[in-house]
Amino acid sequence: MSGNTILVVEDDPNLLTTLTYNLQKDGYNVTTAIDGAEAVETARKEKPNLIILDVMLPKMNGFEVCRILRNETTVPILMLTAKAEETDKIVGLEIGADDYMTKPFSMRELLARVRAMLRRTRMGEVPPAEEKTLLRINDLEIDIARHRASLGGVALELTPKEFDLLVFLVRNRGLVFNREQLLEKVWGYDYAGDTRTVDVHIRWLRQKVETDPQKPKCLITVRGTGYKLEG
Predict the structure, then answer these.
(1) Can you list the pairs that 144-148 forms with residues at least 24 positions away whose Cβ atoms lie under 8 Å?
(2) Dihedral (Cα; 149, 128, 119, 38), 10-degree rounding
(3) Which of 59, 78, 140, 162 could crosslink 158 through cysteines, CB 3.0-4.6 Å?
């Protein structure tokens, strides 16, 4: 746990203090920013291992911060939103956030998410020696060690979580997983709430790996059950 730096971007001083205290108590180094512009500058300078990013920020909102940083880095991003509206959640996921939490939230759950996101990142960086680091299925090639994927020789621009999801499904091709199972296996935690996170990532992954995303032949929906990868 020690050695991981988390950037917390939050303009509410009380919540910022609470988050900082609990993260430090859990063994993390914490750096902070109180507006969007400072968040981008701090992320570039400090190169944190994970970013907790509020949506409603002065100078530049969290969506724009996420969009900028996602073009520059694969650092995991957990977005915080004060609204329970579905559109806010989907926008955050579609621009590259790895997950979101809606305020008010349980600090215990946030810490569990942070641990899981960092654990998945470490697992992705150093694959076990016995695991294959180069996966192929039809025209799709995945280089796990270099965190790259290509289709027909053309590089795919995948977010970190899209990459993790694709690797998991390719490794388990032909098997059907429901949304809760994918959250546990790919996101790394049990989550009994909104499973739209999985649906959004599947939809965007289809845009990148399917010839016709409306009629997928590779990333298949099993009605009433979940998803599987065929090929």
Answers:
(1) 147/74
(2) -50
(3) 162
* Nearest CA among 95, 126, 228 for reference residue 170: 228
Same domain, 74 and 17: yes
Q: Which of 74, 100, 125 is the last residue of a domain?
A: 125
pLDDT per residue as tens digits for the range 152-188 = 889 998 877 888 899 999 989 999 999 888 888 887 7
Within 10 angstroms of residue 152's Cβ, the number of other Cβ atoms is: 8
Distance, CA of 72 to CA of 40 (rounded, Å): 10
- Domain range for 145: 134-229
Q: Which two tokens stand for residue 206?
A: 């289809």
How far is the CA of 34 from the CAs of 17, 64, 74, 126, in angstroms?
11, 15, 22, 33
Rounded to an integer, what is the distance from CA 42 to the centroid of its chain? Answer: 20
96 and 196 together in one domain = no
CA 222 and chain centroid, separation: 23
